[in-house]
Design goal:
One of its GO terms (biological process) is glycolytic process. This is Phosphoglycerate mutase. Pathway: Carbohydrate degradation. It is an enzyme of class 5 (isomerase). It contains 15 helices and 13 strands. The chain is of the alpha/beta class and 416 residues long. It has two domains: 246 residues, Alkaline Phosphatase, subunit A (3-Layer(aba) Sandwich); 147 residues, Alpha-Beta Plaits, CATH 3.30.70. Strands 9-10-1-11-12-2-13 form a seven-stranded mixed β-sheet, with helices on both faces. α4 crosses α10 and α5 packs across α10. The relative contact order is 0.25. The structure holds 3-phosphoglyceric acid. The site of 3-phosphoglyceric acid has 7 residues, from loops.
Amino acid sequence: MLPYPLHWTERLAIKTDSRILFVVLDGVGDVPINGETPLSAANTPNLDALARDASLGLSTPVAPGVAPGSGPGHLALFGYDPLHYEVGRGVLSALGIGLDLSPNQVAARGNFATLAPDGTIADRRAGRIPTDLNKRLIALLQDAIPSIEDVQVNLYTEAEYRFVLVLTGDGLGGRVADTDPGRTGEPPRPAQATTQDPRDQKTARIIQQFVEKATHVLHEADIVKEYDPAPNTVLIRGVDTKPNLPPFQQVYKLTPGAIASYPMYRGVARLVGMETPPADWSGSGERTETKLKLLREHGDKYDFIFFHVKKTDSYGEDGNFEMKKKQIEDFDAILPDLLAWKPDVVLITGDHSTPVGVKAHSWHPLPVLIYGPHVRRDGRRFTEMDARGGSLGTLRHLDLMPLVLANALKMKKFGA
Ligand SMILES: O=C(O)[C@H](O)COP(=O)(O)O
C-alpha cells in the first residue's frame, strides 16, 4: 500500500478542468529579527491582496525538529513522504538537467568548493562560482577522468557551483555517505558505503578515487589559481540510483507541469511525473522572464503548475535579510502574471525555512496560503506571524496536496 496521503488520494482524486497553481518560495520561512522577517518587512501589495481572501496556516515540512534538504522538502509538498521515499540529491539533479538514469547508473550531486591549506573546507560553494567557470572546470575534469577502474565517469554542470557526477558500470550501488559534511571548518569526509553490500563498497571506492583525482587536477589548473576563493576541490552528496515513484497522473489524476530555473527542482518534479517544458536556462539567478514565457506558452497544457522561486533560499543561506526581502518583493511583482494563468486554486508556501540568522535550512514551520472559491477568508498577511492562527491551522507538508485537490473540487466523497 502506498504511504499517506497517496494511498487514499489515489482512491478519491478525480479528473476535472479546474486548475491548481502551486508556488514554492524556496527557503522563504524565517525567524523574526527585531520583530520582522523578510516576509513581514517586504512590501507585497499583490500577495497581501491574495492572502486577505485566502486561508492561512503553518506547515511543518517533514516532522517537528527536522530541517529538510530541498529534495525531501519538495517531495513532502508533492505528497511523497520523504521518510518513505528517500531519494538522493544526485538523482534529482541528474533528472533536472534532463538526464534519464538507467539501472546500471549512480548519480551524485557535487559542489565545487574551496579547501584551506590545513585541509579543512573554507567555502562549500567556492564563493558561488559562475556557471561559465563551472563549465570550464567540468570540461577539464571530464578530460582528465573519463573512467575509473571499469566504471565510466560523466560530469555535467548543474548551475553556478553545482555539478552532477554519473557513474555507469556493472555492480554499482547507491548507498554511499556524503563526502560533504555540510559545513565549513572541517575536512571533507571519505567516501564510505553505508552497507557491506559489495555494490555500495565499489561505488564508494570509485567516488573516493574521483574526489582525489579531481582535487589534484583542480590544484594544478591555472584557471583555478585566478580565483579567490579558489574552486580547488569537490564535495559529493546525495549518491543514489533512480527509484520509481507513482506519478501525479496516477495518484492525483492531474496533468502537471513544472517551471523552475534551477535543475534540481525540475528533477524532483520529473521524478513524480511532472512535465518540464524546455527552455534556454543558460545564465544564473531566477531567469524570471524565461519562467513567465514558459507559463504563457505552455500553461494551457496543464491543470497543475509547480512554480519555483530559488533565490529566497540562497540569500537565507548567505544571511542577507535585505536581499531575501527583495526576492520576496520581486516575486510579488510577478504574482499578477502568475494569476493571469487563471488558476482556480492557488497555494503558496516554502519547502523549508532558511532563516538568515541560521544561514542554513531549518525546522521552522512555513506559512502556507490556499486561495480558492471555497476557502474561509482569514483577512491576514502571508507572514510567519500572521499565518499562525489562520483557518488552516498547523499542518504538515504531506497534508497540502489533498487540501488543494479538495479546494479545486477534485476529491470525491470518502465512503457512503
Ligand atoms: O542551492 C542548493 O543547491 C541547495 O539548496 C543548497 O546546497 P548548498 O548548501 O550546497 O549550497
